[in-house]
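Researcher: Let's do a round of design. I'm pasting the structure tokens now; please hold your answer until I've finished.
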């Protein structure tokens, strides 16, 4: 197969230009089909087989594959092409065989597989969601951290302490997600030698606090930079290291497969973090260079893990860039490589970064809407926007707090449900001027062994908006259902007396993409209950407690789940899993919810402790109730929470 030559020209001040970039050889379809037959196939669950037809629910993802010669072997991606069409003009051409695609609407989806002049098809029928199921945007509330490696490079203990302290504050604010960094330059500083220590530590710190991870990936090791470049964040690799580039990102996605789903490639490539100096990277030529490497990255990441969701690098869409600079950049990407090499668009829609009054722009809303317009015009409206950085560089903490509330309210408006996540920047200051007080929600003392974070006045604005005025999370053990010691279908750690756990990948349903790897289940239409006692927390007069979770109708996609709050009639001083919840349970409040074929976060049950209540001073119990409490059917649950305000 003919190889396309990459031509690079180094100009003044380290400028890097590129011409003649075309289709890479590994992505060009062979002129000869080496297979006697091909079979287009669909796979729904991780343990399910391949089929020529399948049924799912709208909003669910499904896997597409081309098998060869009547076997279960996937065809080599360079020998076959895939095309999926569906309702409302849906069309994608997955560049990697065996990946997952979305079914955003109900209706029929057709997979067409081609190997030169041999064609095969398979179909998927997506049925309608249960009526009344709320639309979910679970990653809307997100706070980023300034990674510890920025201050403590080389001291892994200090780096870990910084990250853990930061992520704890993210969780305490009620945020459900955060941002971590997988830097090629840091992980492979020496060619062929990988150090995953920092990456694993960041992931572990986020997982321990129940946070969904959105990962930055990018930068180039010094050894792979083109001649004349010395900064890892300022250039893709020299073309001679293309194979190393793809090998690393294939390894990255494979290592974190089914742990990290969301990635973006590079940071502000249209701004200060690309090949031209003086932040001059918003032109067509630089966009095309970025698009070519985005394409290579996308293919490698999908080969490593077919289920990852991949976004463009967070584009600088600050108010000073205007309404259309980012949308023009996205259009250039479409023109260069089409729409098959990114699943989402990540942007940084800052309003006025240094606001002085409430009339200043809190977001660059015209830029967000303009980028959305490109996705619609390009017939890919199901692709989401990640508002991956926004914040305010001001010492006026009261103003910063008001700006945060306005931005969160805008993102929460159902009219803007095309925004999938919105990450405030940041827990700690960024190092920009003034270096001692800018975007951060906390003051920092880095002189002690473990960094101390002290809340600024803007932090409660975020927390109160999410959790209610004065709100705080109470620590439920194993609230994300991830930390179990039994095998699948066994007992749930720290919960009882009934219930078990299972893997989402084996029981896929819409909107489970942010719920981790495992979920809990029990039979609500029987005497079974699932609960936990908080031995270290007691009811306080006048406080309101809210217990809620994500829930689903189980194997038959329908059911009723009773959420309950109660107290322990007799103190239990044993570990929660050893307490007898049934004999000690005293009921306070129940609220039931009908659940269906799509995961969603219910409002749960709330209880305000009145004066004279027998619950005052008693240990708190939360649980899912039984048939006698109004329960029906097989219930699945995940990501449980208890808040107090």
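Researcher: That's everything. Go ahead.
Model: Designed sequence:
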């Amino acid at each position: 197969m003919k190889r396309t030559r990459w031509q690079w020209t180094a100009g003044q001040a380290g400028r890097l230009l590129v011409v003649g970039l075309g289709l890479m050889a590994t992505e060009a379809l062979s002129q000869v089909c080496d297979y006697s037959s091909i079979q287009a196939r669909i796979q729904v669950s991780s343990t399910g087989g391949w089929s020529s037809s399948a049924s799912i629910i709208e909003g669910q993802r499904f896997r597409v594959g081309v098998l060869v010669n009547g076997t279960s072997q996937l065809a080599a991606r360079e020998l076959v092409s895939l095309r999926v069409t569906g309702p409302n003009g849906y069309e994608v051409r997955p560049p990697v065989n065996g990946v997952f695609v979305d079914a955003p609407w109900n209706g029929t989806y057709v997979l067409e597989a081609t190997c030169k002049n041999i064609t095969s098809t398979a179909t998927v029928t997506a049925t309608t969601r249960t009526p009344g199921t709320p639309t979910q945007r679970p990653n809307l509330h997100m706070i980023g951290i300034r990674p510890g490696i920025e201050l403590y490079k080389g001291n892994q203990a200090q780096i870990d302490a910084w990250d853990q302290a930061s992520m704890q504050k993210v969780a305490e604010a009620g945020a459900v997600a955060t941002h971590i960094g997988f830097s090629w330059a840091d992980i492979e500083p020496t060619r062929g030698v990988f150090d995953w220590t920092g990456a694993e530590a960041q992931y572990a710190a986020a997982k321990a606090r129940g946070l969904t991870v959105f990962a930055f990936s990018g930068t180039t090791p010094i050894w792979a930079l083109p001649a004349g470049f010395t900064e890892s964040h300022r250039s893709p690799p020299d073309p001679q290291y293309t194979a190393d580039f793809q090998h690393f990102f294939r390894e990255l996605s494979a290592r974190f497969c089914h742990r990290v789903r969301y990635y973006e490639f590079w940071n502000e490539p249209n701004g200060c973090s690309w090949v031209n100096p003086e932040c001059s990277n918003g032109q067509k030529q630089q966009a095309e260079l970025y698009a070519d490497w985005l394409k290579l990255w996308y293919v490698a990441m999908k080969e490593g893990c077919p289920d990852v969701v991949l976004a463009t690098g967070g584009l600088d869409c600050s108010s000073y860039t205007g309404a259309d600079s980012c949308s023009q950049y996205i259009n250039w990407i479409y023109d260069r490589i089409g729409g098959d090499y990114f699943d989402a668009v990540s942007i940084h829609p800052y309003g006025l970064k240094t606001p002085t009054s409430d009339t200043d722009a809190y977001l660059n809303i015209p830029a967000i809407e303009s980028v959305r317009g490109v996705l619609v015009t390009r017939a890919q409206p199901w692709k989401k926007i990640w508002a991956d950085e926004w914040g305010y560089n001001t010492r006026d903490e009261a103003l910063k707090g008001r700006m945060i509330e306005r931005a969160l309210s805008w993102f929460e408006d159902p009219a803007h449900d095309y925004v999938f996540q919105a990450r405030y920047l940041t827990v700690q200051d960024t190092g920009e001027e003034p270096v001692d007080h800018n975007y951060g929600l906390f003051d920092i003392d880095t002189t002690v062994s473990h960094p101390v974070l002290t809340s600024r006045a803007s932090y409660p604005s975020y927390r109160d908006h999410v959790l209610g005025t004065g709100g705080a999370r109470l620590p439920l053990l194993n609230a994300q259902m991830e930390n179990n010691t039994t095998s699948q279908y066994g007992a749930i750690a720290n919960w009882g007396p009934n219930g078990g756990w299972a893997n989402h990948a084996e029981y896929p349903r819409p909107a489970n993409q942010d719920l981790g790897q495992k979920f809990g289940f029990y039979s609500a239409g029987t005497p079974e209950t699932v609960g936990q006692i908080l031995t270290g927390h007691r009811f306080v007069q006048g406080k309101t407690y809210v217990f809620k979770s994500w829930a689903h109708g189980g194997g038959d996609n329908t059911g009723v789940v009773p959420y309950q709050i109660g107290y322990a009639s007799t103190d239990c001083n044993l570990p929660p899993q050893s307490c007898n919840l049934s004999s000690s349970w005293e009921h306070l409040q129940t609220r039931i919810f009908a659940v269906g074929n799509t995961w969603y976060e219910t409002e749960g049950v709330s209880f305000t402790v009145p004066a004279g209540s027998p619950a005052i001073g008693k240990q708190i119990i939360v649980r899912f109730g039984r048939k006698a409490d109004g329960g029906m059917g097989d219930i699945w649950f995940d990501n449980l929470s208890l808040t107090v305000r």
